[in-house]
Amino acid sequence: MLLFFPIFAQYYKIKQLKKIIMSKVTVIGAGNVGATCVNVLAQMNLVNEIVLLDIKEGLAEGKALDMMQTAKLCNFSTTITGVTNNYEATADSNIIIVTSGIPRKPGMSREELIGTNAAIVKSVVTNAIEFSPQAFVIILSNPMDTMTYLAIKSSGLPKHRVIGMGGILDSSRFASYLSQQLKVPQANIRSMVIGGHGDTTMIPLIRLATIDGIPVTEKLTSSEAEKVVADTMVGGATLTKLIGTSAWYAPGAGAAVLARAILKDTKEVLPCCVELDGSYGIHDICIGVPSVIGINGVEEVVTIDLNPTEKEAFEKSASAVRNMNEVLKELNLV
Questions:
Q1: Structural domain of residue 64, as residue ranges?
Q2: What is the structure's pLDDT at 329?
Q3: 309 and 182 both lie in a single domain
Q4: Which of 23, 140, 172, 277 is the most exposed place for a label (fewest CB within 10 A)?
Q5: 285: helix, coil or strand?
Q6: Of 146, 63, 99, nearest to 246 (Cα)?
Q7: Per residue in 274-306, pLDDT tens?
Q8: Among residues 318, 314, 290, 287, which one has the least CA distance to residue 302?
Q9: Is there a single domain that holds both residue 233 and residue 291?
Q10: If we measure between CA atoms, which residue out of 116, 129, 49, 119 comes closest to residue 83?
Q11: Which of 197, 274, 293, 314 is catalytic?
Q12: Domain termination residue (choose one: 128, 148, 166)
């Protein structure tokens, strides 16, 4: 019996290694977000190959080369390849991560990005799935809820294989602001943001946030809690104002975490933008809700028992997202 466990362990190790070797991820868009995503994924040592694609000649190749020259320093074995508009190089990808589009400028709303970014996202998703028809698609391009909806409707992919990353990012920002206010490590905090990925549509669930299992509302005054919620909701705009463009470290890392959950079949509950078909009483839009993420993509939508105030806020958020989606119809993109 004692001999069985080492043999089983070795078999399991080989099986998992084979799974990793067979994994390939494509990241479309070699800007700050895309390059950060590639860098985080590589350092996770999660996949055998990452392809970074961009339309600008030499940009993806240069960033890929630069990152590959950190492989020995950072101890990863993933191969990173950069290509210019060569979708054939992305063939047989397990996951396609879309970061393409123009970033938000100071004072620009995500809604203002629809006209430009919708055409870009539709094109790159169509081109990518031609060579990787079984791939999962992760959307980062803004406005993310609407771009996720567009990717599903224009590609014909089943809804469980197209996921928007936004809720992961917003929840991470929520944890960061709670950590600053409470002066505790972020690892001790459990928090979640649902709703649309926008300054006025996201809903930080302060009532359900905990620190070491204790509700944060027991540790914060009402004004402190309100400040954390407000700071979270304008977290993206705050960074845009400070650095002159959209953030990239946290969004890139968020996409990598989502990819890891799929590839490693972690069954994590992550707040993601997914298409709802009756959950929370919502139909035919993509919006942020907690979801079980695993080898089949979105495996389950987790229903939270929202109080009347939270439910009203969620319904308003869904209405705002639906209104943004109407622009796609006006542009004949869906």
A1: 4-166
A2: 86
A3: yes
A4: 277
A5: strand
A6: 99
A7: 999 999 999 999 999 999 999 999 999 999 999
A8: 290
A9: yes
A10: 49
A11: 197
A12: 166
Q: Report the side by side order of strands in the sheet with 214-215.
A: 189-190, 210-211, 214-215
Q: What is the pTM of this model?
A: 0.91
The count of structural domains within the chain is 2
User: Which one of 105, 140, 166 terminates a domain?
Assistant: 166
Label residue 265 left, alpha or beta by phi (over 0 means left) and psi (-120 to 50 means alpha).
Answer: left
What are the structure tokens assigned to 80, written together? 């990173």
- CA triple 129-132-138, angle to 5 deg: 65
Tell me which amino acid residue 140 is.
Answer: L
By the 8 A CB rule, do 191 and 204 touch? yes
Kindly state the tokens that stand for 224.
């402190």
Active-site residue, 197 included: yes
pLDDT of residue 334: 83
| All residues at 6 or more sequence positions from 322 whose CB lies less than 8 Å from its CB, including other chains | 285
For 228-269, what is each residue's pLDDT tens digit? 999 999 999 999 999 998 899 999 999 999 999 999 999 999
Q: Please tell me whether residues 181 and 144 are part of one structural domain.
A: no
- Euclidean distance between CA atoms 136 and 295, whole angstroms: 10
Domain with 141 in it: what CATH number?
A: 3.40.50.720
Q: Which residue's structure tokens are 């970033």?
A: 103
Report H helices in 132-199.
144-155, 166-182
Peptide bond preceding 103 in cis form (omega within 30 of 0):
no
CB contact burial 173-200 (16+ within 10 A = b; e otherwise): bbbbbbbebbeeeeeebebbbbbbbbee
CA nearest neighbour of 24 among 116, 122, 131: 131
Spatial CB neighbours of 321, under 8 Å, sequence gap ≥ 6 = 145, 146, 196, 201, 285, 286, 287
Q: Name residue 299's amino acid.
A: E
Q: Which residues pair with 80 in a beta bridge?
A: 50
Nearest Cα neighbor of 157 from 306, 267, 298, 330 is 298
**126 and 177 share one domain:** no
